Amino acid sequence: MSIESTKDSPRLQILLVDDSPMNLDTLLATLGDSYDLRVAIDGQGALDLIAGGDLPDLILLDIMMPGKDGYEVCKKLKADEKTSKIPIIFLTALDSDEDEAKGLELGAVDYISKPFNPAIVNSRVKTHLELKQYQDNLQGLVRAKTQELTEAYKDLKQVHDQMLQQEKMASIGHLAAGVAHEINNPAGFIGSNLNSLQKYMVKLNKGIAFMEQALKSVDDPEITVQLKEMKRKLKFNFIQEDIDDLITESKDGIERISLIVRNLKSFSRAEDDTLKLTDLQKCLESSLSIAWNEIKYKARVEKNYQELQPIKCLPQQLSQVFVNLLVNAAQAIEDQGIITVTTRQEKDWAVVEISDNGSGISPENIERIFEAFYTTKEDGKGTGLGLSICHDILQKHQGTISVASDMGEGTCFTIKLPMPDS
């Protein structure tokens, strides 16, 4: 490796520190053709030059100087993180092993004895500049590799955590399928029994009406009074009226259970990567049904649906996005609030807005809200992957997701999905 300067690179800079004009002249003559040289005639002057200008690539430092000697200057430079890596070669007439050991202990890389031999000066300077350049290049490579490994680890961790999240969703799907199956059977026979009970009640009411009509022809006032008193005590007329309402309400409840079961089955069904024409409104209704347990105690849901033609999507993944946003909206509401779900068409885009009047998101958090692992929730209550996965799912659909929020006013997530070509 050569340290020779080229037209495209600045010359390497050496700081010469010596109180002897003769020594400085020799060094200038020896090194001036190859390097950019700066000069200081004492220790404090050297420190001032370094503090006020560019850092030199190497320092040739005399030991015996008035004021701050070379040892003190070396010690100060090595104690400062900005200058600690600059190689220092001591210039000295001292020749004892003790003096050399002291200098090396302070951090010097070499000694050059006075009087100078130009060939030795050139050789030592070139060697230590090359070593510094090798060291700098090696440190640069280490930093680059460290950054590369850090980014790779971050990406790997993100993929790993997303896979865990997907496995978690798959486990929830299997659980949901099992629960749906267990609920479906009793719900089925309850619904069937209610249908039969409703038919029986029609017949019973007809029979009761016929018997009441027949009893009117019985000419026995005492029996008539007893029957009227019995009907009053048993609230017979109220029961006849109320039982129809009870059956109707029960059947409505069973229908809601069946709807939840159907949505759970749809949510848990294995899905390939084939886009399907899907009714967004039905997908939203399914998602609302799944998220209803999180919503019902916190918010009233208002729906503003505009008619949209079906779009091509992966319905289960889209449902995962809607469920996540609906649950987040409910969790943002502290007491009682409103969640508004809106659909409309904007040019070639199907637009879905899910907004709440909850606590809102601060400006510093909203900038990072779609980053993986970033969460404002307490430890153990959020992985920071929900919105990141939503973002990835919508990117896969060639769609977008954006957020607008005001602290104390609420948050609105806007999803845009491409309409199919007509």
Strand order of the largest sheet: 2-1-3-4-5
Number of domains: 3
Q: Could you name the ranges where pLDDT drops below 50 across 5 or more consecutive residues? A: 1-7, 379-385
Q: What is the percent of helical residues?
A: 55-70%
Which CATH architecture of the largest domain would you pick?
Answer: 2-Layer Sandwich
Could you state the order of secondary-structure elements as H and E? EHEHEHEHEHHHEHEEHEEHHEE
Look at the structure and name the CATH superfamily of the largest domain. Histidine kinase-like ATPase, C-terminal domain
Treating each run of at least 4 consecutive H or I residues as one helix, how many helices? 11
How does this structure look, described?
This protein starts with 12 loop residues before the first strand and ends with a strand. The chain folds into 3 domains: 104 residues, Rossmann fold (3-Layer(aba) Sandwich), CATH 3.40.50.2300; 117 residues; 152 residues, Heat Shock Protein 90, CATH 3.30.565. β11 and β12 form a beta hairpin. By secondary structure, it is of the alpha/beta class. A 5-stranded parallel beta sheet has the order 2-1-3-4-5, with helices on both faces. A 5-stranded mixed beta sheet has the order 7-9-10-12-11, covered by helices on one side. Strands 6-8 form a two-stranded antiparallel sheet. It has 11 helices and 12 strands.
Give the topology.
Layout: E1 13-17, H1 21-31, E2 36-40, H2 43-52, E3 58-62, H3 70-79, E4 88-92, H4 97-106, E5 110-113, H5 118-215, H6 221-233, H7 236-268, E6 276-278, H8 280-295, E7 299-305, E8 311-313, H9 315-331, E9 337-346, E10 349-356, H10 363-366, H11 386-396, E11 400-406, E12 410-418
Parallel strand pairs: 1-2, 1-3, 3-4, 4-5, 7-9
Antiparallel strand pairs: 6-8, 9-10, 10-12, 11-12
Helix pairs in contact: 1-5, 2-3, 5-7, 7-8, 8-9, 9-11
